[in-house]
Amino acid sequence: MTTSACIDIRDIEDKPEDMQIHVFDEFIEEHHCNRMLWSFFNALPPFDVTMPDGSDYFKSKKRVYQDYKVHCPESPAHLLFKWVRNKIRRKIHQLYGSDHFHHLTLISETAPGPENTVFYHSDRDMRDECGGMAQFGSTNNGYGVMPNSSKDPGERWVAHKGSWIPNHTPTRSFTCILYLNEDFEGGETHFPHYGVQCKPKTGTLLVFASDWKHEHGVRPVGNNSRFNVSSWYASEQLNERFRDSEHFDQREQT
């Protein structure tokens, strides 16, 4: 797949029936985005969690809503994030019904990095083996995240040979990405299964299903950092199904 052949999701007139990707430009105003960016730098420490492979996946992420609720519940920052979270939740309920509950919200920074690294993953499924991806020298870390180290970053995607199984968050139904800035190069959210991508725009909300068909990755970012608020919504049906599973990740009461 090449960049020129990858169309922006906004330009698709007839979507495949199984594609559940929605783009809402100007979902929130730019000044709200700027206030959240200020909070990222000035209000809370990073949400540090060490993964099984020893990496700190959350090094540049902050669990904004829960931490604000605990540490500064009456602050303007908390009230802003509460408003944004509820606005996103209303959109999910409008699209898919009210039986989906908020699971987690993170604000994260993707800093400019090596131009030959793209990470692809599904938010509720993982590969049971690396399969075709093994040619890039990767290993399955148990979270469905796979580095693509080809010489054409984000343009070469090889389907795995194994099967998809639930990952550590099997209750997630939908993923939401709220872009807070656009003053950087690259950084498109890429969906290789459909051959589409979404170019970040300040205040745009991207909503998509969390299943394996909507495996996604962020193309390399250049010149400046990419900031976004990510949130996940889980269904009550999946919550009951996996409640007793070893993969079950407790419901966040926020």
How would you concisely characterize the structure shown here?
The chain has 254 residues and is of the alpha+beta class.
3D architecture notes:
This protein has helices at residues 30-42, 64-71, 76-96, 236-241; strands spanning 7-8, 21-24, 61-62, 100-110, 118-121, 125-127, 146-148, 164-166, 172-179, 185-186, 189-191, 196-198, 205-209, 216-218, 221-222, 226-235. It is α+β, with helices and mostly antiparallel strands and 254 residues long. It has a 6-stranded mixed sheet with strand order 1-12-11-14-5-7, with no helix packed on it. Strands 2-13-9-16-4-3 form a 6-stranded antiparallel sheet. The chain is globular. Residues 131-156 and 250-254 have low confidence and may be disordered.
Topology:
Layout: E1 7-8, E2 21-24, H1 30-42, E3 61-62, H2 64-71, H3 76-96, E4 100-110, E5 118-121, E6 125-127, E7 146-148, E8 164-166, E9 172-179, E10 185-186, E11 189-191, E12 196-198, E13 205-209, E14 216-218, E15 221-222, E16 226-235, H4 236-241
Parallel strand pairs: 1-12
Antiparallel strand pairs: 2-13, 3-4, 4-16, 5-7, 5-14, 6-8, 9-13, 9-16, 10-15, 11-12, 11-14
Helix pairs in contact: 2-3
